[in-house]
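Support case: user asked for a sample of complex input and structure output to validate their parser. Sending the pair below.
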Amino acid sequence: MIARRFSPFTRIAVVAVLLIGLSGCGINKIPSLDEQVKAKWSEVLNQYQRRADLIPNLVETVKGYAHQEEKVLTEVTAARAKATQMQIPADVLSNPNAFHQFEQNQTELGGALARLLAVSEKYPDLKSNQNFLALQSQLEGTENRIAVARRDYILAVQNYNTALRTIPDRWTAAWFYPDLKVRETFTISEQAQQVPQVKF
Amino acid sequence: MRSPVMFPLPPGEGSLIRHRCGNSSAGISSTSAQDTLGEGAATRTCGDKCAALRFDIREAEPSPSVSRGWREAIWRSAHAASTAIRVTLSRREREQKESRTGPLTRYARAASLALLLLLAVAMPAYASEPSFPALTGRVVDGAGVLSESTKSQLTDALKKHEDATGDQVVVVTLDSLQGYTIEDFGYQLGRHWGIGQKGKDNGVLLIVAPSEHKVRIEVGYGLEGTLTDAASRTIIESDILPNFRSDNYDAGVIAGTASILTALGGAGASALSNVPRSERPIRIKDYRSHSRNDVSDVHFLLVMLPFFINIAAFIFLVGYRIRQIPKDKRHPYNLIWGGGTSTSGGLSSSGFSGGGGSFGGGGASGSW
């Protein structure tokens, strides 16, 4: 009989090990990490959209004072169009090409914006314009929010990818969620590493 | 003959460990200074054990995308674990010679290898973060630049505001930003403290870093529409920075807080309006900047300590309880819960704590 062969301690130890093993194997963990990644990605998209929404207003304001800076203004408008018109495929998070295209577009827009704000420094009237100051601080705040959203996304992806690639969760994933793939994460491109050139 | 594996150790550790593995008569030769149990440079035979160790340590090596902070931490843990294994093995082997307890040795090896694996798996939880000051009240004067009367007036006004609106506003001065930008530090501090109500995220931080000459208004998600980036910037430019430029931190913080409370539209601002603007000249302390390596060392210990204490306490508790309970009453239920005295009551609070709000980088910064 089992009761004779194993003491209560042995039995409770076996049950405890099984319970810990079940909760530790990530049967709920992997889907919730996946959802976290999706939520953080939505936040990233949301903040990029917020930046794109601020740009037309900024371009109009700058145009009023510095219409001769046509090249920079066109650049910003073109970069914004490229970034917002990109069709983002549904599997963008596990599709390296689409993901890097998205990131490339947003980086270009960021660079063009930085150049626009840099040339604005040349126009004292523009700099003291209340509308411009408000837009400028909103843009700064949005860039900061983008940085935070990206950081949160990177952390979420790190947790998710780690779970997907380390034991024991990788066994659970392979067994129960074979369609889940490792997610892409942001890299700092060479262009973003270069400080924008300011020429006077 | 396989090639020897060299482990780069974190800087500051003078000792070098070299593991050599052969095919038939593999050996671990150790020149570690920590191996006090060994007689001189101990050389022991090992077979698959050494290969397993190599495997584990290779597994523990993080991918290149991993940040440097916990790469170092992993090396440290791998180093500590391998030392522990070697120490255990040497002790076990001596015991084995004396009393021939073969299976025990194998268990010890398995347990220490499992511990190493566990450490490697548990490591990603340790990410590099700044070390945050404790939330001691609504005004946390870590840099020591505010006068007592300023602190008490701010505390009263902020409390009044929270009672009226539920918004949590906290003023914090920092000794150092620890190498982070104030934007980077600010939102993490806000999240760490959980300023604002959970779900509403209605918290605001006024952060002053005198040694870096930076100031920031960090606005929680829920208040970004009320205290906009542009409004925050105006408050910093017109109320705070002019006072800070003349080294009058009290006046700057009071004027800034009053404007924040006014923008948030609650009570409390009136409590600050009749405060004399310059109370005393401020002496600027000789700030020393911390090096981030020192911080991460302490951090690593702090992160790992509760983990080890928990394990030790659990083992001790279970062992103690087993001995306490008479043999015929040793039921599993009694083991954990039965007959013990329960401790209750949390940490004593200072009457203020964060409500669990979150931050997303809203607000504005300035420097002087």
